């Protein structure tokens, strides 16, 4: 089945993507653990979401023994906010590869970031929401622009506007 017809991916699928097996060599890849910031993608589209330009919903199970809690910060363990942002970027790039667009993904930036909560070891699950505002594929440019949010156990803790991820064949 072509990847574009699938709307959900489990951890094994995400690991296959990280190894370059899901979208093919030289195309969008997720990072391997421990930098892989999600356990499953529960929904993905090229025409859904708040703006009708595509979306991704994913989940990340939180366990007290995750690698970042030990070092950030000793005695006051908190998941670094930049890892939540990276998870949103990862999902934005995954959506571009899922669309069948070619090239390796890289983050170009983000317009606005608001961190209003924290991920501590007692949290159970993060849910990521990415809503595309623009998805462009031309001869010169392949790029997605999206807004996103991260919820911890149902509470909105991170919000971003104008994330940009591009694919490049070089």
UniProtKB/TrEMBL annotation:
Subcellular location, principal: cytoplasm
Domain of life: Bacteria
Classification via InterPro entries: FabA, FabA_FabZ, HotDog_dom_sf
A single GO molecular function term of this UniProt record: (3R)-hydroxyacyl-[acyl-carrier-protein] dehydratase activity
Pathway(s) where this gene product acts: Lipid metabolism; fatty acid biosynthesis
UniProt family annotation: Belongs to the thioester dehydratase family. FabA subfamily.
NCBIfam families assigned: fabA, PRK05174.1
Protein name (Swiss-Prot/TrEMBL): 3-hydroxyacyl-[acyl-carrier-protein] dehydratase FabA
Species in which this protein is naturally found: Oceaniovalibus guishaninsula JLT2003
Upper taxonomic lineage: Bacteria, Pseudomonadati, Pseudomonadota, Alphaproteobacteria, Rhodobacterales
């Amino acid at each position: 089945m072509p990847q574009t017809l699938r709307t959900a991916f489990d951890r094994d699928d995400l690991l296959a993507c990280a190894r370059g097996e899901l979208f093919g060599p030289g195309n969008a890849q997720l990072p391997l653990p421990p930098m892989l910031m999600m356990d499953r993608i529960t929904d993905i589209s090229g025409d859904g979401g708040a703006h009708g330009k595509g979306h991704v919903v994913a989940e990340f199970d939180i366990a007290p023994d995750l690698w970042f809690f030990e070092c950030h910060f000793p005695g006051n363990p908190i998941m670094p906010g930049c890892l939540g942002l990276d998870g949103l970027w990862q999902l934005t790039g995954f959506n571009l590869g899922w669309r069948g667009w070619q090239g390796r993904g890289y983050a170009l930036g983000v317009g606005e970031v608001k961190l209003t909560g924290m991920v501590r070891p007692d949290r159970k699950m993060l849910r990521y929401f990415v809503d595309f505002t623009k998805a462009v594929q031309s001869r010169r440019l392949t790029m997605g622009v999206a807004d996103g949010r991260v919820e911890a156990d149902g509470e909105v803790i991170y919000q971003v506007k104008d994330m940009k991820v591009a694919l490049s064949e070089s």
